[in-house]
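User: I've been trying to design a sequence by hand for this structure and keep getting stuck. Would you show me what you'd pick, starting by listing the structure so we're on the same page?

Assistant: Good idea, let's start from the same input. This is the structure you sent:
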């Protein structure tokens, strides 16, 4: 004789367990969705902060150079003496060109690193999907085996 009460209890527990997993999954996804909604605001705020920083740096440079130029225009304090002015300008231009090249190279390296990280996340997602598919198949096979064993055990009684 098959015990229908224990079979009903097992089905109820299985349904309750599935509901718990579905609830957990929905809650995690909801949290990520909320974080995703805030992301554009964070990005814009960081971008605005960077632009404000650049504007402040430019303003500082303009004011410092203007003050030095004003001081030098009185003729009392020459910042760069005439025989060295051309060499100073040449070296300053070379240094600036080198820094600009470094900035371009750094930017390209950074973009490449970010793109590589993004590709790694895509690979991770594909790997997780494959592992999940494998685990699901293994769980189904295990559950099928256990069900057969339970049925054989119950029919023996």
């Amino acid at each position: 004789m098959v015990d229908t009460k224990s079979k009903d209890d097992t089905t109820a527990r299985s349904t309750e367990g599935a509901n718990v997993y579905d609830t957990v999954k929905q809650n995690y996804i909801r949290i990520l969705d909320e974080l995703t909604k805030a992301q554009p605001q964070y990005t814009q705020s960081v971008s605005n902060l960077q632009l404000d920083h650049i504007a402040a740096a430019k303003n500082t440079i303009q004011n410092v150079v203007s003050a030095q130029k004003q001081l030098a225009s009185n003729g009392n304090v020459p910042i760069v003496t005439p025989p060295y002015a051309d060499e100073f300008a040449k070296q300053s231009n070379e240094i600036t060109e080198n820094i600009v090249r470094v900035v371009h190279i750094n930017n390209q390296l950074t973009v490449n690193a970010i793109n590589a990280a993004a590709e790694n996340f895509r690979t991770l997602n594909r790997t997780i999907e494959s592992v999940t598919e494998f685990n699901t198949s293994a769980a189904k096979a295990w559950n099928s085996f256990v069900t057969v064993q339970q049925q054989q055990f119950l029919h023996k009684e």
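That's my pick for every position. To get oriented when you compare it with your attempt: The mean pLDDT is 88. Residues 1-79 form one domain.
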